[in-house]
Amino acid sequence: MSAKIERKSLSSPDETRPAGRAKAEIVNLGGFTVQRFTAQPGWKWSTDVKPLVKTETCQLKHTGVFISGRMKVRMDDGSEIEYGPGDAYSISPGHDGWVVGDELVVGIEWSPQQVS
């Protein structure tokens, strides 16, 4: 097996996905999808994304780390948690989330690359 190293910049993403007052900049490498998401103050999943995906709550699993800003997440069972800079997280499907305060939220997420 030969060794392989890769580099891609989130500043030149493979794909950019708008989500209302947020966006995700995505690169694929090493069998993983890595994304930087930024969310403006006032962004809320149920307001900005729900109309696009047409599910009651977010049905994706998220694993990552917050770089800046604060975000609150409410699970379908009513439990809530607030995240801030430096917090690593794992959020199961079935949640809503929103920016807390007036600071831009920036986070980095990774997941196994989906094969279509």
List keywords for this structure.
single chain; about 120 residues; Jelly Rolls; three-stranded antiparallel β-sheet; 2 helices; 9 strands
Structural notes for this entry:
The chain is mainly beta and 116 residues long. It has one domain: Jelly Rolls. Helices cover 7% and strands 47% of the residues. It is built from two helices and nine strands; from the N terminus they run βββααββββββ. The chain has helices at 45-48, 50-53; strands at 15-18, 22-29, 32-39, 62-68, 70-75, 80-83, 88-91, 95-100, 105-112. It has a six-stranded antiparallel beta sheet with strand order 1-2-3-9-4-7, with no helix packed on it. Strands 6-5-8 form a three-stranded antiparallel beta sheet, with no helix packed on it. Strand 1 and strand 2 form a beta hairpin. It starts with 14 loop residues before the first strand and ends with a strand. The model has no long low-confidence stretch (mean pLDDT 94).
Topology:
Layout: E1 15-18, E2 22-29, E3 32-39, H1 45-48, H2 50-53, E4 62-68, E5 70-75, E6 80-83, E7 88-91, E8 95-100, E9 105-112
Antiparallel strand pairs: 1-2, 2-3, 3-9, 4-7, 4-9, 5-6, 5-8
**What would the average pLDDT be, to the nearest integer?**
94
Main beta sheet = 6 strands, antiparallel
CATH architecture descriptor name: Sandwich
Q: What is the global morphology? A: globular
In short:
This protein is mainly β. The chain is 7% helix and 47% strand.
